[in-house]
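User: Before I run my own analysis I want an independent prediction to cross-check against. Here's the chain; please return only the structure tokens and, at the end, one sentence I can use as a sanity check.
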Amino acid sequence: MNSTAVPRGASEPFRQLRALRRARKLKQEDVARKAGISREAYLRAESGQADPRMSTFLAACEALGLEVVLAPQHLAADVNAFIASRNGGVTAASMAGQPAAPQASPAAPASGGFGSGPTSGEGHKPV
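Assistant: Structure tokens:
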């Protein structure tokens, strides 16, 4: 396996974290330290040698400056397009070297909202 290959056992979210960490030229110990977990625990999670707890995943995401957002599957492409529109075309997946998110349908507002009604902002974190 070459140094850029992703281990077969790694889960998709940790594949993205690994690619993002490498793109930012960070070491596993840098992310682990910032996340408050051991380097060994991070290495096992990233390499697919362990099935980490959700708290480990969330801590690693926070250490890399990511916010985990849950969205209905049928809206995932729209959510990614919205994030890209607010972030200069960049999503976590694109930072990890994956293909850009599909663009929102032409019916989606270019200003970045979903739907035509007002939004309450409840539960919203700035991008």
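Sanity check: The CA atoms of residues 46 and 100 lie 22 Å apart.
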